[in-house]
Specification:
Layout (H helix, E strand, L loop, with lengths): L1 E2 L3 H12 L10 E2 L2 H10 L4 E5 L7 H11 L4 E6 L7 H6 L4 E4 L4 H33 L1 H14 L8 H10 L11 E7 L9 H22 L1 E8 L2 E8 L5 H23 L3 E5 L9 H13 L8 E4 L20 H7 L2 H17 L5 H19 L6 H7 L1 H5 L7 H39 L7 H8 L3 H12 L3 H17 L6 H7 L5 H12 L3 H6 L1
Parallel strand pairs: 1-2, 1-3, 3-4, 4-5, 9-10
Antiparallel strand pairs: 6-8, 6-9, 7-8
Length: 533
Amino acid sequence: MIVDDERRILRGLTQAVLESGLPFTSVQGFHNAEEALRAMESSPCDILLSDIRMPGRDGLELAGAVRACCPSCKVIFLTGFGQFEYAQQAVKLGAFDFLVKPVRDEQLLQCLERALLNLKEEKKEAESIHKLRTRYEETVPVVRESFLRQCAGSERTSRNVNEIIAEGKLLQLDIALDSPVRFVVMRVNNRKKWIDSPKKSETLDSLLFEAVGTVKGESGLCMECWRDADFFACAWQSKSAIGSVVMEKQLRRALIDMQKILFERHGMDTSIMLSKQADNLEQWGISYQEALQALKQHISQGRGSIAEVPQGEGVLMGRLPGLDLLQSLGLLLEAGDEEQYYNRLNQVFSDARTTPGLPYRIYAEIVHLLSLALLTSVNKLTLTSEERDRLRIEEWTDMSCFYSVEQMSEVFHTVSAEVFKLTSRQRDMNRDVMSRLKWYISQHLSGDLSLSELSKIAHMSTAYLSRIFKETTGEGINHYVTRARIEKAMELLRLPSAKVSDVAVQVGYDNTPYFTKVFKKVVGVTPQEFKNE
């Protein structure tokens, strides 16, 4: 807000600020303090730039009224030369700065930039204070969560069980630490949707706790919940002395309801691992850690899966039949055969969806073979940093990024499509470069056509040029150069006046005997015999 009773000065200051490019959302100008104060009632300003000496209320009175209703406002005074008697009053009013008229645009804008920076720092400080206050208010829930995480962890063995139970009572936990417990470890499979910013990550937590709270009130079960890195954990316990079979039914029904709430209301796809029962606090750590590890290695075959920690060692399965189809995917990528490639890819994921009880190592092998085929093709491409970023290589080469067959299939189909597109573009570019290189060779048969020289022309390394030329033309580059030279020599030798020694030089051979040797090797007769024929 700019206030000055001199219209020319007000107009000049307003124009300078508007054209400065500084990030103001609004710039308003007023001729007196009364107008400015009326405007402030509906639209408070962040920075007030005001003349001091004005008819009616002066700038000092205006600043006092503004600071009373808007303490954070930065006040900058404009003073005429010799009016420094106002400086002391300005300081008392908490003025940010005062400038002497006439004010140069550069001086004004520097002052405004400092005021903006000061506002930004104050806002940041206020946000920090707010965060600290919020964290303080959350202290008790955090302590509870930390306590439960320690109970379910592996570092609490040195503590006395009775001491832990006593601490649990002090924290007013909803479960009895000395009674049987089942742990539920949950993973939000599409979690990345909520972690683009810290705010969204907090929303994820609140939604999970809300869903659990809803189910808790309807299920007749007691529970306590906490976060464990990317996982969400609950300790469940029956309120009454019921049998384990009844509790199992109650718990499964509660988990299905919770998954339904999360998916239907918030679009969350979750995977749940149910632990073995921990009969006492001593078994908490083993029971919980088993469930956590099992979920880390669990690949869901459908939406909303609920699995249990396997009893014993389980049955070791052989290879998935479709795995053999992945061995040749690299060749299909190189050949650009999309139809065969996707047929085999779809077959593998179809087998993975319909084969029950697949161990984690099978999924790991699928990811390994697909990543290997794709990376082999990618490493042969000349890519910009933007194209490499778009491929998101780290997201499909890391097994820990996968949580379901559906997601795995979607990721590899998307990446494969991108690699096919890049490979096709690279193939077209290579054909174009090789076409231009062949034209260059045809125009410079008498010159230096060594591999090192041609690599400079093509802007490729010698090894890369050799490989690409062979892949594109089906012929080695040195063999192609020799054939082009000999074919040109045959054309020249048909001229009646042509001499063998002259033709040799014209096609790049300074040594006639060597030319004769090469010519005979290619054509089957010497240059002279060819000419005589």
